[in-house]
Request: fold
Amino acid sequence: MKLKACCLSVIFLIGGCSFADAIIQRGYYSSSGTSKPSSIIYTNVNSNLNNEAYISAIEEIKSKISKTPNDYVLYVSLIDMYLKTKQYDKAYEKLVFLNNLALNNKLDSSVKSALNTTYNDFKKYSKYEKNKSLYYINMAMMVLILSNNQQAEDLISLASDFSSSDSKLLIDAFKTVFATTQNTDKAILIAEKIIMKNPNNIEVRKLKASYYLQTNKIDEAINEYSTIVEIVPSDLDLKYFLYKLLKSKNSSEKEIIKALYKSDKPNYEQVYNEMAQMLLNNSDYSGAKYYINLLIEKYPNNANGYILLSDICRKEGKLKESYEALNKLREKADSNEAIAKYNVLLAKLSDEPVKEANSLIAAGLYQQAIEVLDGANQESLYVILTQSRAYYLLKNKQKTFELLNKAMSLYPDNTDVYCAFGYIYLKENDIESARKYVNRSLSLDEKNKTAKDLLDMVNKAEADKSINQIISSFESQNYQETMRLIDNALKINPKDPILYYYKALTYISLNNYAASTALLYKSIELDKNNVPAYFYLGLAFDNLSEPENALMYYQKFIDLLPADYYGESEKLEYAKNRVQKLK
Reply:
């Protein structure tokens, strides 16, 4: 064994050529007139899968592919190595990739020539292969790419002889080959061989049925789908497909039900329910309604009949009929499941018109929004709140508060109800009432984003109102009242730069320059565009006999003051004069 390994190393190091390079060269030289390098890839066909030389070669080829991904001969070399090391699933994956390229005429003759060489080498060693199925699957894919369709079919047939009953790779290759060859008769024969090993293989049975349909053998397809439905009776999609096939043959209702439920005396309550659901799932509303009406007529206490009726009416846009069915469902609901479905449908019925109404409100169509909501559930919270908003925008305050009070009566502990009240009071400039409702909302749900945003709006509104009072008081030289108003406002909004600014101005007016500086710094920290604050810092330090600081802040005021900053000409002139004197 050591001698053999040594020989291999010598072969692949001649002329500085790596193992991977030698393998790649095999592919390039195979169809040329030059002599082909020694075909060594299968000289040790049963070698250990962990052979470092092969692992290294695979990694080297993959590295080359990453650099030149459109050099498809490299993929053939990689397939070659995967086959050698019995990594059949990886080889198959790359063959599928090449096959897709071939179908789109993206493989040139050099790639096919290299693949042909690999195929011819590989087929010599079939006797060494223990997993015949995977061997023949890869062989089939190679000849498919080489356009030998009949041989690909034969190899898939051989693969099916040796496959396990549920080989996913075989089924995938089977589909790939016959999607290309379109030989449905042979495909059916191979499908039958696979099914004999595993009668419950649904995927192969579906393929077989599809081949029958391709050749217009409707009866055979129906029989196959009937068998599939018998194996998986809960699959409504399969049942619907069989239903459509039977309808295409003008089968009677009795024949359809017998084929779908395999019984001469089925449980009709279950049948009507399932048929209605199946047809509803496939948007066959007329068919669904037929079975829903049968279910309600024959089994009036079956809550699911009303669930289905409400759902189908909702999907048809018949909201009134949907609510009527829901009201009957509420009377019939006899289980947690039925009650849960009732709640889901009720939410859907309320949600859809609310979305539409909000879109209309955004477009300024308030009356149209109200009309949409008139057909919705009048006890739904968000229907009521959206109606109240639309009426408020129409300036109908009486109706607005009537609806809000209704919401409060029905949902006394709902955080969004209090938010709605808070919003309206804020719009009405009743800040005290707005704050009361917003705080109540946050006490119910401290993480409510709407309530948090509203609280910020309330604080801002209150601050704006306070600032107007502060300015008025300051201009009247009522400094004690000004300070009181500012301190109260800071408790509510401690990050408002204007409050610190006016407090500083009040101290300056009282000749308390030392107290003003910290407040001016704070105002600038919160609002870097507060240019006048620099002037007053200069003024404060000027009066505190700190000329360097005074000069610095006067100059900052002059430099930062925009040219179009009207109303500051006196300050600007004063600052320039002081700068000249302080220099």
Observations:
- Confidence is low (pLDDT under 50) at residues 1-17, 26-49.
- The longest helix spans residues 336-362.
- The CA atoms of residues 442 and 449 lie 9 Å apart.
- The chain has 31 helices and no strands.
